[in-house]
User: Which sequence fits this backbone?
């Protein structure tokens, strides 16, 4: 992946391919890659410690995968106002956005997306002041050292360095960004902006409410711009449209 938001950080697509291969052996042309991806996301979250939720099925796969869709993924230094509009354009609320950000208690990103990148908080001066300076120094020294500047764009850092082994799924993410401890400038800004800081405080103190709202937001997210009925196709191979995979 070469797009700014997820380049050199997205992993696990081989597992999706393996699942698709097995499904096609037993139910050829029935289960789409889009549905499998939604199931995989849910199961990964459940394995991380979140309560299970039902995933609606019936999605179909696109005939193409425009690069513009991937390049439109949120970036670490986008402002709250910018992403609020981006989520709204897809039928998601500000609350959905804040709730879904809690998933950043696990995962990784590239150093160039983080607070360690020079100029990453130029658009958010209040966030720059709020960031925990000791945390910032730790992130620079441990994960994004200047001595490796040539490779800086390829180095990866946990989204939640206080949970580097991805073993602590939950609302601890909100408690930490309230202290200015978060890898992405945008994450920290949620605890600063007046429109979102109240929600951050609420989810930091109520894990059960956050988990409930997170499940509901994931179901909504899984319905964004889906193809159903006779739209699209059921791919035989998730990497290619059927016309290519059989050529």
Assistant:
């Amino acid at each position: 992946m070469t797009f700014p938001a997820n380049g050199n950080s997205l992993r696990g697509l081989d597992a999706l391919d393996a699942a698709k291969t097995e499904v096609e052996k037993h139910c050829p042309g029935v289960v789409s890659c889009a549905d499998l991806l939604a199931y995989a996301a849910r199961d990964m979250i459940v394995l991380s410690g979140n309560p299970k939720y039902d995933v609606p099925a019936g999605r179909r796969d696109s005939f193409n995968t425009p690069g513009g869709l991937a390049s439109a993924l949120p970036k670490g230094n986008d402002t709250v106002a910018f992403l609020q509009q981006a989520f709204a354009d897809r039928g998601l609320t500000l609350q959905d956005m804040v709730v879904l950000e809690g998933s950043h208690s696990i995962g990784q990103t590239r150093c160039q997306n983080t607070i360690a990148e020079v100029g990453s908080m130029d658009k958010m001066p209040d966030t720059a002041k709020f960031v925990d300076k000791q945390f910032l120094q730790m992130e620079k020294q441990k994960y994004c050292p200047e001595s490796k500047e040539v490779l800086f764009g390829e180095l990866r850092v946990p989204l939640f360095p206080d949970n580097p082994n991805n073993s602590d799924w939950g609302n601890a993410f909100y408690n930490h960004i309230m202290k200015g401890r978060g890898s992405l400038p945008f994450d920290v800004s949620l605890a600063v902006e007046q429109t979102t800081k109240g929600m951050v405080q609420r989810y930091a103190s109520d894990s059960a409410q956050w988990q409930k709202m997170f499940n509901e937001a994931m179901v909504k997210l899984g319905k964004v711009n889906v193809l159903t009925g006779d739209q699209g196709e059921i791919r035989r191979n998730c990497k290619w449209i059927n016309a290519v995979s059989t050529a």
Q: What stands out?
A: Strands lie at 108-110, 156-158. The mean pLDDT is 87. The domain at 8-62+227-247 is CATH 1.10.520.10 (Peroxidase; domain 1). The longest strand covers residues 108-110.
